[in-house]
Each structure stands twice: as C-alpha cells, then as structure tokens.
Design a protein that fits this description.
Length: 418
C-alpha cells in the first residue's frame, strides 16, 4: 500500500511599507574640544548627563560632564583589552571595564566595587553586557569567561574549540544564557594571512561549535546581534578600500548569508569603527577617507550611517570641516535621542592630536508595519500533497518576504525575499 504524504505549511507574509514618509535627517548640535589629549579612544558610555571614556596612549578612564565638557575625574589603567569592547554599563547602573587581564567594576563616582584577575585565562580581555545574568568576557586565543555582575565571581570558563589565534580585535556576544557568538581575527587569509571569523557556540558542560562563518583577507571585525540576525564585518586588505558588512540569519544548526554591503559604496573608502542598534536600525561610525590616498593622508571625516533591517540606507551625516577627523568611539544617550562621537583631530596627518566631542540629535526611528494576513487567504489548498498556490496582492510597492516554517518554528525555505 502506497502511503500519501501531506504537508501542512505555515507561511508568514510580511509586507513592509517601503516608505512611510521622509525620516528626518540628524543634525550636528555641537562640536567641542575636550580638556584632555590622548592618541586613541577605545570605548564610550553615556549615563545621564555624563560620558565615560576609555582612552589609550595614555590609558585612562575619564568621566566628563556633557553639559560643561569638564572632566569630573580620571583614573589610569594599563590596557583596555580589545578596541571597542572594553567599557560597558551594568544592569545595576554601574560600569565594568577591562584593564588588560583584569576586569574592574566601578560606581559612576569612580569607586571600585570589585576587580577580577583573569590572567590565568587570558592576557587581553574584551567584555560585553548583552546578558542581564552575567558579564561576557572573551580573551585572546578564544577563552570565554562569564562573571557575576554583583561580585565578579567566575560562573564558568571555556576554551572555544575553533577560535582565533589573535591578540586584539576579539569579542563575544551572549544571545542567551547558553548561546554565544564569537568574533575573531584569525590567521587564515589567502593573500594577507589574516581573516575575520564568526563562530556560534552553545555552552552546556562543554563548548560546542554549532557553525562558523569566515571571510579571508579582512581584519578588525565589528559586529552585533539583533535577535537571530547577526551583522558582521571587517576592513578589506587587498585592496584596502572599504569595510564589508555581512547580514547573517541564524537558522539554528546553520546560517544563511542574507546580504553583503559595501559601506559607503565601492568608490568611497570607509572604515567602520563601531556598530550600534537603535530600535532595530543599524548605526555605523565610519572613518571616511578624503582624496585618493587609501591610507588617509589626504584627510578624513566623521561620518555616521543609518541602515534599516533590509540594509537600505536611511540617512547619512558627515563632518569634514576638519582635515583629519577620526571618530573612534560613539555612544547613545539614555533616551536614544542623541548620539555622541569622540574623535581624534589632527591639523596634519602626523599630529599633534586633540580630542573632540560631537553631539548629534537623532530622528525618531520609523517603524515599518508588518502585515500578517490569514494563511487561508494566500495559500490554497492547505494542507496539500503535491503542490499549492500562494497568492497575495499589495496595494503599493514594498519590501516583501515569504517564508515557509515547519511545525517546530524553523525556517524551511525563503520563497520570496525582496
């Protein structure tokens, strides 16, 4: 007897309005020189009317008043860890920063709550606050350590089986209490002996690698996670022209590369320093190289890009009134209404350096509506054996996605992705 197999599918039809109306362009509110000078800035955090900045060369943690631009206090440290992932807020309104192989928690007044020496695990630590249950620490040579926010106790540590052999530019983001995305520089390039690598890891009693995505001939990875979407990119080396940003969908046991975006376009040299999320919109802080010299000797400019979830450019703002203006850290205000960029300004290519703070007012992100029609209105017959017909009608042009999910809620296939 031949058994007939019937398939019942669930289809989500998402029709997102292409344009609900022109979104406002952000405005530069103020540009101020800061009362200190350093050669590099690793990270910045805004809480209330104050900005906390982790600096390099020399190494300081600095608190400034955003209203007066005065330094409230500064304290030295030895090394910031991995650039861009060295200073975070804690769930209880304090701060954690990496100081080489040591993690330190302080109050907004600069008082030390606790410190944790992790030199037995790693010599260079990055940190991430993407979980309210623990601080995610990720060391060179791919050591993952979780710390208790309250007292700094080590909750667990694992050596990631397939990480990178790197010294800096590494970080890990917690997607849940057991799923982590690890971002690494590796030595697996084809022409330049360097690459960037994204590894999904599940932690049970041991660390299990679920999947990896590696791109040769890029370095200095940047990235962030928005639900099951990962944005991951790095700077091109051959030729050294731009930053490539990859949008990746986590499919569970595997991944799907959704898109690759050449930031600022193929004819513009743009090096992305930081990524931020603002209501699912992607904010990118870029160094835009002016002129024809790819190393920036003709000048550089502050530029901020905003992309929506479909990687369509929403707005761009640039500041090229200064000849060598390199943005190195950005931070959002508590209400996400303002963006603060900390930059190095040089009158000539070789310096000397001064530090500047640019305050930018942000428009309210436009939220696209998602229309989910009744499944029986678009798919008939359902269930079906050999074939079915899917019909839908749109009143105006819009981005559309049709996906088939199985009974476990896993994506089986994308039928339309426009």
């Amino acid at each position: 007897m031949k058994r007939s197999h019937y398939l019942f599918i669930t289809i989500w039809l998402m029709a997102m309005a292409a344009l609900l109306g022109a979104q406002e362009t952000p405005q530069i509110v103020d540009v101020d020189q800061l009362p200190f000078s350093v050669g590099d800035v690793s990270d910045a955090v805004v809480m209330g009317n104050f900005c906390y900045i982790n600096t390099c060369l020399p190494f300081y943690l600095v608190k400034i008043d955003l209203l007066t631009k005065e330094v409230i206090w500064q304290q030295p440290n030895s090394y910031t860890g991995s650039p861009g992932y060295s200073l975070v807020k804690t769930p209880d309104g304090n701060l954690c920063y990496s100081d080489g192989s040591e993690i330190v928690k302080i109050t907004p007044n600069g008082d030390i709550c606790w410190s944790r020496d992790l030199s037995s695990y790693s010599s260079c630590i990055s940190i991430s606050n993407t979980s309210n249950n623990f601080l995610t620490c990720y060391g060179n040579y791919s050591n993952l350590i979780l710390l208790n926010y309250e007292n700094g106790a080590i909750l667990g540590n694992w050596a990631i089986p397939t990480g990178g052999n790197h010294y800096s530019y590494h970080f890990a983001i917690a997607s849940s209490d057991s799923i982590f995305y690890c971002f690494d520089n590796t030595s697996h390039g084809t022409t330049s002996n360097t690459a960037i690598k994204l590894t999904k890891v599940q932690i049970n009693t041991a660390a299990e690698v679920i999947w990896s995505f590696e791109v040769p001939d890029l370095l200095q990875p940047v990235g962030l996670v928005d639900d099951n979407i990962i944005y991951f990119g790095g700077q091109q080396l051959d030729p050294w022209t731009n930053t490539l940003l990859y949008k990746i969908e986590d499919m569970g046991d595997n991944y799907q590369l959704v898109s690759t975006t050449d930031i600022a376009g193929p004819d513009t040299t743009a090096h992305v320093h930081h990524l931020l999320l603002n209501n699912h919109e992607l904010l990118l802080s870029c160094l835009i190289v002016l002129g024809d010299d790819p190393n920036g000797q003709d000048g550089s400019a502050l530029s901020m890009f905003c992309y929506n979830q479909n990687m369509n450019l929403v707005w761009q703002i640039s500041q090229n009134i200064l000849p060598f203006f390199v943005t190195q850290a950005v931070a959002l205000s508590d209400d996400a209404a303002k963006l603060y960029a900390i930059s190095i300004y040089r009158q000539t290519y070789s310096g000397p350096d001064t530090n500047w703070l640019t305050e930018i007012s942000l428009p309210t992100p436009v939220t696209d509506p998602v229309l989910t029609p009744n499944i029986n209105d678009v798919c008939y017959p359902n269930p079906f054996r050999n074939s079915t017909t899917i019909k839908f009608e749109m009143n105006s042009p819009a981005s559309t996605s049709i996906a088939v999910y199985n009974i476990k809620g896993q994506v089986v296939r994308h039928l339309v992705q426009s």
